[in-house]
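Researcher: Next entry in the queue.
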Amino acid sequence: MFKRILLKLSGESLMGAKQYGIDEQRLADYARQIKDIHDLGVEIGIVIGGGNIFRGLSGAGRGFDRVKGDQMGMCATVINSLALSSALEAVGVKSRVLTAIRMEPIGEFYTKWRAIEAMERGEVVIMSGGTGNPYFTTDTGSALRGIEIEADVMLKGTRVDGIYTADPERDPTATKFETITYDEIYARNLRIMDLTATTLCRENKLPIYVFNMDKDGNLLRVINGEPIGTLVTL
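Model: Structure for this entry, 234 residues:
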C-alpha cells in the first residue's frame, strides 16, 4: 500500500451530470472515496483542475490574453479546491487548502514543508493555483507537487479506466495497457498528460497510475493493489 499519494483530479469530472460548474453529488462521491483511503492512514495530497469553470488555453482561443486566461484558470482551481475541502469536512476529514499565489485568508501560501507537515498530522492537503505561473497546466502542477511532497505515486483520476492505444471513446478497437513505460508513451504519442508533466515524472522517477475515478470505490481498489488501471513507470 502507498504511504503518501498525489491524487490528480480533473475539473471536468466535477461537473458530473451537469454541463458546467460543480455537481454536488459527484463532489460528495469523491469526498467519500478519499475518506475511505484516509481512514487507512494514507497521506493524501490533491491537485484539481479548473476546466469545469474556465480553461486558460481555450480562453486564449476566444480572444483572452493568455496570461490573464491562465490566471483565471488558476482561480478556478481554487474554487474547486474550496468545494472539495468543504465536502471532506462534511464527512469528518480535516483538510487544508494551499494556494500557489498568496490569497489569505482563502488559503495558505503553498510550501513543500507546510504541505508535508499537514499530511503528517493527518490532514488532506489540497494544493491549488497550479504552479502559480501561466503557460503551465494543472497536469504539470500535479507532477511538480507530487515530486515536491515526495509522493510514492501520482494517481491520475480520469473518466476512463487506464491508458489505451487510442482514445477508447472514439476508437472501439483500442486496447488497454496494464503497464507502460514513459518512453513508450513518447514513441506512441499518447497524450495522457502534457509533455512537460510527463517528462517531470520521468526524470524524477515518479510513477503514474491512471484509473477511472468516477466509478465508486475505485480509489480504494487502487490503494489495495487491484489492477484496475494503467501503471506508468521507467
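Model: The longest strand covers residues 4-9.
Researcher: Noted, moving on.
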